[in-house]
Write a structure and sequence with these properties.
Length: about 325
Amino acid sequence: MKSVLDQLREMTVVVADTGEVAAVREYKPVDCTTNPSLVLAALKDPTAEALVMHEIEAGRRSGRNAEQVTDVLTVAIGAELAALVPGRVSTEVDACLSFDTNASVARARAIIAEYGRRGISKDRILIKLAATWDGIRAAEILQREGIDCNLTLIFSLAQAIACADAGAFLISPFVGRITDWYKKAEGRDGYAPEEDPGVRSVRAIYDYYKSNSIDTVVMGASFRNAGQIKALAGCDNLTIAPKLLDELSGDTSELPRLLKPENATGTAPIRMDEATFRWQMNADPMATEKFADGIRNFDADHRKLIALVQDRMASETVLPAS
């Protein structure tokens, strides 16, 4: 009998929510998605040690500072992953640039150029940007240049609509983080999948997109349990951490498809200008709090990456990851 993971792959593109080479080799996803937290974990992966040492040594010899080496190292890990998956590798623009459209565009172009120097074309990469109004405008510019974007940290329909209006290739709504907020706010231990606020948020976005023939890919992310994943079976893409991939691969229960384009309710299009976007975000305490928290956390992990690289560059010899 087919596993739930195999059944899911027949209706949804499964993406590995990891930057670890060993996990990608094991689970063989179509795409990989990364963020600073995942790259930080990858730096402690023994199978990536030779790559890390090579890039840090090359950076040290070329006179690059720790931040510059970190940027190159992130792309080097992405290039390694691109050799293992048939699809795309998402690579994130620094979270500290989330409110600067021009700087985000410049950083995205630099990422694509670095991949190009490694023989990887832009059609294998998704540039990952936080879905601030400024980040969405950066995506709009990049999409016109043929650089596909993954708008991340999606917590509201307002963000999803603005991303679609900008022509974003893909969005990443964060299921588990939405659920976490509501559990705390409502004093709940958990939710049944059908009433889970994170699941319902992604279903609403999926319905809006399919009702309005929007091509932007919906990729559910940030799952806390397998039930959330099963409740979104049929979503365009789902990015899943290795632990949950393993759980799904060992489950042989029947998996019904719950999201289908033909079941869209016909939701009318909503006009989303800047003032409406900012007001709707402000009016949603969950979206406001989790979005700001997500940007801060990504930035904190980016700074940890830089500090780790700086420590290694300062050593007389490059030490193994701990």
